[in-house]
Every structure is written in structure tokens, then in C-alpha cells.
What does this fold into?
Amino acid sequence: MIGVIRRALRLPPPGQRAVLVLLFYDGLSVEETADALGLATGTVKSRTARGLATLRNLLPADDLITPGGS
It folds into this structure.
């Protein structure tokens, strides 16, 4: 599963990818991510939403984890 996630993180544009990595891999808060990247918190939130939408739209459905699944 880690390989799928790593490959998937190549899909979003760099700005979205950076936000997703800091939030989900490094465990930073939105505010910490904004500070680290020199962005407004609203920009971090919108890039997060767009990055997750990109992953959702581009990943094959069978690569996604469903709630309660594995």
C-alpha cells in the first residue's frame, strides 16, 4: 500500500504535493504547513482539497481504501 501512496503523490502538481506531504506524511497542522511554505492558511486548505480531488480522480478505484476495508 505504501508504494501505491508514493506513486499517487506524483500525480498532483508540485504545490499541491508539497502541502499533502507536509500535512499527511510529516503531520504538520495547516498553520505549520502554511508557515513552512510561506502561504496563507486558506491557500493550504484549498491546495489540500484540490490535491485530494486530484488523487481521487486519477487513482483507479481498486487502489483506494474503502472505510472498513483494507
